[in-house]
């Protein structure tokens, strides 16, 4: 991460770049620089102002309750300074961020009301709106989601989870607290905002500095020349001792913009203000950061016996008098109350005389301030048990299941090694003639037979039972998981190659839709991303980390922020696609369960049914699944006959042992479902035999009647018959041939 050091201003009017600075630019620089307690970096700011007449300055806020003077008066002062120096100010009304941070219970309608109330205050209190734009984050992101979300994902890919967690202070949290997945997404989005708004300057509080530095680091990572200048303003403390900032949940710590005169007086009277002590004295801070910048002076009125009236022009003089005891706390407080009330009076008047403003304030005062995230504990989550089949042919609702529905049920159920829940599946098939089934894949290299033959078999079974199958080509997910180095063009090529294989391999496409994730999400972003955010805010980080298996990762690995975003998005896919059935591998089970848990959280009745198919192992001993990075572990869909034979010959196949025997697994899950039989030809080991069930194959193999050599020969023959149409297609079809050449050249990366 970039160091938090600050450049000291240059003494002359020449920048290190050699650019001469005019007197006018020096003046503009001094005005802009005065906004920040810290600037990263001064020379960059001068250079920017010398080159650009109207730089874009990004400021923002979460609409989250009544506005206190730190948000109100300080922002007005800063914005007016920036516009006077020629800056264009974009104020980001971060409604989606307030939602993710569970402000106002995550109620977007309430958050919108608060945002409008804020705008009324800024207008009434004197913000110069001539070069100021108020932009609602939800509206802007929805309008240009195809620009925004790939940027968020790229930031997530390039930063580890640990790096993102270090930015938690931007939300008033520490990285050791119980975090939700939304807190990780929030940081990536706020970093993206800087670039989305084309900001030259990030003008936010000191508490936002870590994420602004993240934006500068991202510039280094993507080799972007113009880094945003960070101008971090001071954070006003609360009124009581030790309160680092004002708190909306503790009204005694803050002065609100529409507080009555009497309320301001009482709060200042009770404020911490130790005699002769400047450090940590909130009353003096308010004078320094609000009153002096607002009026350019601070007038103290007192009896002659206490020194008489005095008007201060600098904070140094005020601090000197206060430390010496010449300025008494009571006199300081009285003068501060008077000055604040003078500033706030136009706001009070506006909220009393303007009916819209009055109505907004009434609503805002009625809202309860919240911060606790709506995440269920792990003990509240649905048990991962599996229903056993119902004894009767009726569902738990008492619905009679017809013979046709029973047949459809048996066909669909045969796909899954596991089904959650069987009664729900029967009920669905009895009520809905064409249920939607969601399947998907990450385009990430050559296709092995587990992805090819098994998917063709499963999809054809589903469509024969009347299901509509939506196959999700998860290009953005492959990018998040850094497949093929995150190169979307290559990922797209692989996706097209996969489609060619399924077509050649005999997939019935009548009721099948291939959907590119990036295209569908961009087209329905205003529906999709709020869903992702809601899933993220309802699940703590520990729960999402448990889903790492869906990406082939463990929760103990060093993860990027992208691997937190991935499960939330995959969970949202199910609802975006309106899926009734999730037909994915056993390794995807945890995220499918997350979708069912989400239904319980939001009181959604129709939970997706989880139909998890078996995961084919690799060819060698102990390989739980085929690996594209180890060609000897997998048979690829366009492997030549000789390649298939060599791989099966070398495959692990211990005599008389069924458990953990990959050759027997391929017979069970590929050959038998494809041909409804398994033919073994042998001259010396009992002659030819045709098996109709896997149980018979197992019995012969365990007894030694079926020899490994004969099993392997029969398996080779069946696989080669299955794969021959695919080979022919990739030899005769120019498009397919070209795709395969490209895919073979791609390096498999993780």
TrEMBL record:
Catalytic activity: tRNA(Tyr) + L-tyrosine + ATP = L-tyrosyl-tRNA(Tyr) + AMP + diphosphate + H(+)
Start and end residues of each stretch annotated as Disordered: 378-400
Molecular function in Gene Ontology: ATP binding; tyrosine-tRNA ligase activity
UniProt superkingdom: Eukaryota
Aminoacyl-tRNA synthetase found in the keyword field: yes
Alphabetical list of SUPFAM superfamilies matching this protein: Nucleotidylyl transferase
Keyword Hydrolase in record: no
EC number(s) stated in the UniProt entry for this protein: 6.1.1.1
One annotated Gene Ontology cellular component of this protein: cytosol
Top EC class of this enzyme: ligase
GO biological-process terms attached to the record: tyrosyl-tRNA aminoacylation
InterPro entries referenced in this protein's UniProt entry, alphabetically: aa-tRNA-synth_Ic, Rossmann-like_a/b/a_fold, Tyr-tRNA_synthase
NCBIfam families, per database record: PRK08560.1
Functional summary from the UniProt entry: Catalyzes the attachment of tyrosine to tRNA(Tyr) in a two-step reaction: tyrosine is first activated by ATP to form Tyr-AMP and then transferred to the acceptor end of tRNA(Tyr).
Entry similarity comment: Belongs to the class-I aminoacyl-tRNA synthetase family.
Descriptive protein name: tyrosine--tRNA ligase
Organism: Arabidopsis arenosa (Sand rock-cress)
């Amino acid at each position: 991460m970039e160091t938090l050091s600050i450049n000291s201003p240059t003494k002359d009017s020449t920048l290190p770049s050699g650019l001469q600075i005019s007197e006018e630019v020096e003046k503009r620089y001094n005005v802009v620089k005065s906004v920040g307690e810290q600037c990263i970096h001064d020379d960059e700011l001068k250079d920017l102002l010398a080159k650009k007449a109207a730089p874009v300055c990004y400021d923002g806020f979460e609409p989250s309750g009544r506005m206190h003077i730190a948000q109100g008066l300080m922002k007005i002062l800063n914005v007016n300074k920036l516009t006077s120096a020629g800056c264009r100010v974009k104020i980001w009304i971060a409604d989606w961020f307030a939602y993710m941070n569970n402000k106002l219970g995550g109620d977007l309608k309430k958050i919108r009301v608060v945002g409008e109330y804020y705008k009324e205050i800024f207008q009434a209190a004197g913000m110069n709106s001539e070069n100021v734009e108020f932009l609602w984050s939800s509206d802007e992101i929805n309008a240009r989601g195809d620009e925004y979300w790939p940027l968020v994902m790229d930031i997530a890919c390039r930063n580890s989870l640990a790096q993102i967690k270090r930015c938690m202070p931007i939300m008033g949290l520490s990285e050791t607290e119980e975090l939700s997945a939304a807190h990780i997404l929030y940081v990536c989005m706020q970093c993206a905002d800087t670039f989305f708004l084309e900001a030259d300057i990030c003008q936010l509080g000191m508490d936002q500095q870590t994420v602004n530095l993240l934006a500068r680091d991202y510039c280094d990572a993507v080799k972007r020349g113009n880094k945003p200048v960070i101008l971090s303003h001071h954070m006003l403390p609360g009124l009581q001792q030790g309160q680092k900032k004002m708190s909306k949940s503790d009204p005694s710590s803050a002065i609100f913009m529409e507080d009555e005169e009497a309320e301001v007086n009482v709060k200042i009277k009770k404020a911490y203000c130790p005699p002769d002590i400047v450090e940590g004295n909130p009353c003096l801070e308010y004078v320094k950061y609000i009153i002096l910048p607002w009026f350019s002076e601070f007038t103290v009125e007192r009896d002659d016996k206490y020194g008489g009236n005095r008007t201060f022009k600098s904070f140094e003089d005020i601090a000197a008098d206060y430390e010496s005891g010449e300025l008494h706390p009571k006199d300081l407080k009285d003068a501060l109350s008077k000055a604040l009330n003078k500033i706030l009076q136009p706001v009070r008047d506006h909220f009393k005389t303007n009916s819209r403003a009055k109505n907004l304030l009434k609503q805002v005062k009625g809202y309860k301030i919240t911060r606790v995230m709506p995440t269920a504990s792990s003990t509240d989550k649905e048990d991962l048990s599996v229903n056993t089949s119902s004894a009767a042919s009726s569902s738990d609702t008492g619905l009679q299941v017809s013979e046709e529905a029973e047949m459809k049920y048996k066909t669909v159920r045969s796909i899954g090694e596991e089904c959650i829940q069987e009664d729900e599946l029967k009920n669905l098939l009895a009520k809905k003639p064409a249920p939607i089934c969601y399947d998907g894949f990450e385009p990430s290299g050559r296709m092995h037979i587990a992805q090819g033959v098994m998917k063709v078999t499963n999809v054809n079974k589903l469509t024969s039972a009347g299901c509509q199958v939506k196959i999700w080509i998860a290009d953005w997910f492959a990018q998040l998981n850094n497949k093929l180095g995150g190169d979307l063009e290559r990922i797209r090529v692989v996706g097209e190659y996969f489609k060619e294989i399924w077509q050649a391999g005999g997939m019935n496409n009548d009721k099948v839709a291939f959907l590119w994730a990036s295209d569908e999400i961009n087209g329905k972003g205003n529906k999709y991303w709020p869903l992702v955010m809601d899933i993220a805010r309802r699940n703590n980080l520990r729960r999402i980390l448990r889903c790492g298996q869906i990406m082939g990762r463990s929760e103990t690995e060093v993860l990027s922020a992208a691997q937190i975003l991935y499960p939330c998005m995959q969970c949202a896919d199910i609802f975006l696609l309106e899926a009734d059935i999730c037909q994915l591998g056993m390794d995807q089970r945890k995220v499918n369960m997350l979708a069912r848990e989400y239904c319980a959280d939001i009181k959604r009745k129709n939970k997706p049914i989880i139909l998890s198919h078996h995961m084919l192992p690799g060819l060698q001993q102990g390989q739980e699944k085929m690996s594209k990075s180890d060609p000897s572990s997998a048979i690829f869909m366009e492997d030549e006959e000789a390649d298939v034979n060599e791989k099966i010959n070398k495959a692990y196949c211990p005599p008389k042992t069924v458990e953990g025997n990959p050759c027997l697994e391929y017979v069970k899950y590929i050959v038998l479902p494809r041909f409804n039989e398994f033919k073994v030809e042998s001259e010396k080991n009992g002659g030819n035999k045709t098996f109709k069930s896997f149980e018979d194959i197992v019995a012969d193999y365990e007894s030694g009647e079926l020899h490994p050599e004969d099993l392997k020969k029969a398996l080779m023959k069946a696989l080669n018959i299955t794969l021959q149409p695919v080979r022919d297609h990739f030899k005769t079809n120019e498009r397919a041939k070209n795709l395969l050449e490209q895919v073979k050249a791609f390096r498999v990366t993780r």
